[in-house]
Amino acid sequence: MFTRYFVGNATWSLVALAVLVAGVAGSILWQWWAFIPALVVAGWAGFRGKNSGGDAALRILADHPWALERFLRDGLVWEAPANAVISA
Prior knowledge:
By secondary structure, the chain is mostly helical.
């Protein structure tokens, strides 16, 4: 159940890193400004990873309220809007 959260977060982090490395390589091998759009896209991918991870955590808590104890024990902390919090 927690695997989807970790895989999603790791996937978007790797996408962000790959885009950033490709942008730096593009700056060296092609045009000097190629890192600028790569930096924007990498920032978006990192932001997307954080959003999808938080959404996955909220879905897990909706289905399994006892998972909050495990999240806290594992050190996973996030902020959520008050209307998205589900009381047990």
